[in-house]
Amino acid sequence: MRRFALMMLIPVMLGCSAKKSVENPVESAPETAHPQSMAIKMNDETVNKLHAILALHAAVPEADKGQTIDLLSQAFLGTPYVANMLIGSATTPEQLVIDFHGLDCFTYLDYVEALREATTDQQFIENLIQTRYVKGEIDFLHRKHFFTDWAQKEHVLADDVTAQLSPHAVTLVKHLNRKANGDAYLPGLPVVERRVTYIPSEFVDDNVIRQLQTGDYIGIYTKLAGLDVTHTGFFIMTQDGPVLRNASSRKENMQVVDSPFAAYVMNTPGIVVLRPR
Known about the structure:
By secondary structure, this protein is of the alpha+beta class. It has 8 helices and 10 strands.
């Protein structure tokens, strides 16, 4: 077993407990006797990387929103892709996972969004709780499971600008969490009816790309019933052109990479664009 560092004792909201699935090597610390406190454990790699990123962020105080997201997301390039980083379900207690040793596509967004306005360890953790959970309640049912939750759920993190970018944007009503056969993707989680707008890939042309901004959150739309997107990343304009910066599960990658944006989107159903606030 790897050695873990007890990082700090952080006060969190009453009733809190944390996010996603089962394949996470982080060992959560037990709650303390105080009901409004939770001990946060992070491995040494995560602690060191967090401090390095906070120092990097502090070195460019004048950076705008897009530059900040570019800077913070770039710090994770090369980080291994690891699926199902979060722990919790309808039958498994939710745990507050903070682990930079590996990322899936959505925890990558979580961490960068939480770091965006953080200057200290505690501020990052508090931001992460608000980013992942409705009302900051660390609980499976309060977790923001779907990409469009960021623009729909309380404590809105971003604005859905998809419809503004193209006259070819399509809006459909989806029943999130309900498969075509009626089963749930996540048992115990309610089905949510939501209007989801996306731009079909054949219409993601130069005009659309020109309107995208560095730091925009990109969701890869899916036609599957019950889901809004199947992948996420950041739109970043680099010296070599626009890229989708993403935690890639493709066999040739399996890490955080910059994928040429137009070529990536061409082979997908389309995109949903959320603009960070």
